[in-house]
Amino acid sequence: MKLNGVDFETYFKHYPDENGFFGKYGGAYIAEDLKQAMAEITEAYFTICKSTKFINELRGIRRDFQGRPTPISHLDRLSASLGNVQLYVKREDLNHSGAHKLNHCMGEALLAKYMGKKKVIAETGAGQHGVALATAAAYFGLECDIYMGSVDIKKQAPNVARMKILGANVVEVTHGLATLKEAVDAAFEAYATEYKDAIYCIGSVLGPHPFPMMVRDFQSVVGIEAREQFVSMTGELPDAVVACVGGGSNAAGMFAGFLNDPVDLYGVEPLGKGPKLGDHAASLKYGTEGIMHGFNSIMLKDENGEPAPVYSVASGLDYPSSGPEHAFLRDLGRVKYDVVDDEETLDAFFKLSRMEGIIPAIESAHAVAYGMKLAKQLGKGSVLINLSGRGDKDMDYVLEHYGLR
Ligand SMILES: *Cc1c(COP(=O)(O)O)cnc(C)c1O
């Protein structure tokens, strides 16, 4: 399939280019000393992704440790309640540790091992990336330093406990607002002094090259599996594929399986409380081009051009930018990015729980909510939704703030 000069048949050969660009988005806007470290990671990655030893080891881990392939479930009762469209979910909630994040963390940690590194470093906001990375580090016997703002440490006690039980060192960041942004800065600073022994593991398709490419490639297992499973289940391709977009890793992995197919792709961003700046985190819908955290993409800015404060009921989606590849696919018109708000999300959270027996992560409930809207609009055909994670982590919050519905 060709679109605006891009041939999706050979897309993965050309995007990103050797400097990490998807069109004008991406790149590596970082200090000189880190450029060397990124170049080493890029070189190691290109070597191992051609190595059958690495590929076979990762395949074995996916099967025997993560429990892959994860299934696709048909949503019988929910579909029937919406008309004639058939809804399906790819069950990343059944991936070990409860979400898609382990797909790239196991890849990144295996890369660390092949590079002879002793430690993995990362920041975390809600703690989901920290838990996935701590899991991977425990598996490989690597040290693990997770930087986290003190505000988030208080808010996310269960995830902090999980990281500690898994043997990770949770480093408290107390300066500034003591949330995700400060944690990112502190983790990068630590990495700049420790890069000989450590590797930085980014939690989404974000950051400087090669991370947006590497994380996408590690997540593409989701889309590759899903395409094969869907075709063998139904005999055809889905009409539409839907995934939620925070940084964009679960969406990038899912879309990778379908980019060259006649399938409509939808990325769903959180509209939160509404379209006013500060009330949402819908960067691809309302943002403008800019550079932050080492890459060029579309971002939400305040009046000084700095990353704007963002909000979503889903802490995994409240990031003021999205991966550069999403900005590129948006401009090309290959993926449509749209929004759902908190209310629609909560409705979907309870409907999926009660009609299907699946409690989704509140992030994933955004994709479910959009899939439900799409089902009503389309009137026929099939929609495949990426259920990026399970909702155990969100149950107390939902009951406390919204009550039973
Ligand atoms: C972190 C997270 C997300 C958002 O991250 P992406 O990189 O956009 O995929 C979505 N769903 C779940 C369950 C998460 O933990």
Characteristic key phrases:
Rossmann fold, 18% strand, four-stranded parallel β-sheet, 16 helices, binds pyridoxal-5'-phosphate, alpha/beta, six-stranded mixed β-sheet, single chain, 405 residues
Provide a concise account of the structure shown:
The protein has 405 residues and is an alpha/beta fold.
Account of the 3D structure:
This protein is of the alpha/beta class. It has two domains: 31-62 and 102-211, Rossmann fold (3-Layer(aba) Sandwich), CATH 3.40.50; 67-99 and 219-402, 3-Layer(aba) Sandwich (Rossmann fold), CATH 3.40.50. It is 45% helix and 18% strand. The chain is built from 16 helices and 16 strands. The strands form five sheets. It has a six-stranded mixed beta sheet, with helices on both faces. It has a four-stranded parallel beta sheet with strand order 9-8-7-10, sandwiched between helices. Strands 1-2 form a two-stranded antiparallel ribbon. α11 (249-256) links the parallel β11 and β12. α5 (101-114) crosses α10 and α14 packs across α15 (362-378). The termini are far apart. Bound molecules: pyridoxal-5'-phosphate. Residues 99, 101, 128, 204, 244-250, 316-317, 361, 363-364, 388-389 line the site of pyridoxal-5'-phosphate (PLP).
